[in-house]
Automatic annotation (TrEMBL):
PANTHER family: CDGSH IRON SULFUR DOMAIN PROTEIN HOMOLOG, CDGSH IRON-SULFUR DOMAIN-CONTAINING PROTEIN 3, MITOCHONDRIAL. Residues 9-46, 47-79 form the Iron-binding zinc finger CDGSH type domain. This is CDGSH iron-sulfur domain-containing protein. It comes from Sneathiella sedimenti. Keywords: 2Fe-2S, Iron, Iron-sulfur, Metal-binding.
């Protein structure tokens, strides 16, 4: 598998905490969307580590096609 599976055609709203690291699922196979659960090990795709610069709500990409990984850039609107 070299292309990510679309997990959903909308972003995941997540309340993040400043300084905390998040492992965003880039393959689309995780059962713990939008975060990695290790399922990527059967693919060539690896998770993206994101460290929150401040606390608040962010929108993590659900379609896995964003140009601004791991955050949503609206690409899901073109799928």
């Amino acid at each position: 598998m070299t292309k990510a599976k679309v997990a959903q055609k909308s972003p995941y709203k997540v309340a993040v905490q400043e300084g905390k690291k998040y492992a965003w699922c880039a393959c689309g196979l995780s059962a713990n969307q939008p975060f990695c659960d290790g399922t990527h090990k059967i693919t060539e795709i690896r998770p993206v580590i994101y460290t929150a610069s401040k606390s608040g709500d962010l929108y993590f990409c659900g379609c896995k096609q964003t140009g601004g990984a791991p955050l949503c850039d609206g690409t899901h609107n073109t799928l």
